[in-house]
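ok trying this again, last paste got cut off
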Amino acid sequence: MQAWHVHELGEPGQVMHLAETERPVPGEGQVLLRVRAATINFPDALMCRGQYQVRPPLPFTPGVEICGETEDGRRVIANPALPYGGFAEYAVADAAALLPAPEALDDAEAAALHIGYQTGWFGLHRRAGLEAGETLLVHAAAGGVGSAAVQLGKAAGATVIGVVGGAAKAAVARELGCDVVIDRREQDVVAAVKEATGGRGADVIYDPVGGQAYAQSAKTVAFEGRIVVVGFASGSIPSPALNHALVKNYSILGLHWGLYNTRNPKLVQHCHEQLTALAARGAVRPLVSERVPLAGAADAVQRVADGLTTGRIAVLPAPENGAAA
């Protein structure tokens, strides 16, 4: 089979190499999956750089999110068990963590209804308690994580403000359903949020960016608002002024979705059921902006690393030996 291997750390476009290799052998409690689609997440780029909290041994195959097929023909979504990641024709995953792929979505969309949407659901509902009628501000609203939060916010009955960088991403955010779109390259984000909310600010702020985005969040969060910190795509980890949170009466909430897989996996299953129901009635549909063949994975991961993409890019391995897709 073919698989992308990383033998040394660095930029994805330079350190990912496509190779012919043997199929991985599942360990105890694992299953072999034929990869139907793998979606690219920012952690894939960070792992190539050696900057992610999970550091698989070299060499490894990136790809943390797939729609796959079991040997008995079931269509599932999974997080592959590294070092045998999803940018390959076959991967392995923990059998107990497999989730049924929603029938309403194709393979690429099903793969994308996992990490970003689970993170969004836990962040907005479990952590922030978003309520209908509240205002939700989403940074990087056209990205893979942000676009999921936008759709989940709209499904929950919130007014959604999307912050993006550039006209093309602004157009995507509008198509996703944002009620207000702010282009941080052309507008003063703080002033624009205050204008859109009559000076009150946003009740919930969803921040996968960090850095300057977090500074803007602290200036635009409403009384008793909640800032949900889900990542640092900017590469800058802010140091919040806790006295500011005290005097403005807002909460700073951290979300590490992966912990739920070990601490409370039943909640992950419950979340998947909620997301499947939302997909079935058309309330959410993952934004898959590109579908590339397996050979195009390294270039696509590099573009995600460079912040040049919207939604999710799906990698579609060709079926082996003419197997049906």
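PB: full thing came through this time. The CA atoms of residues 28 and 94 lie 9 Å apart.
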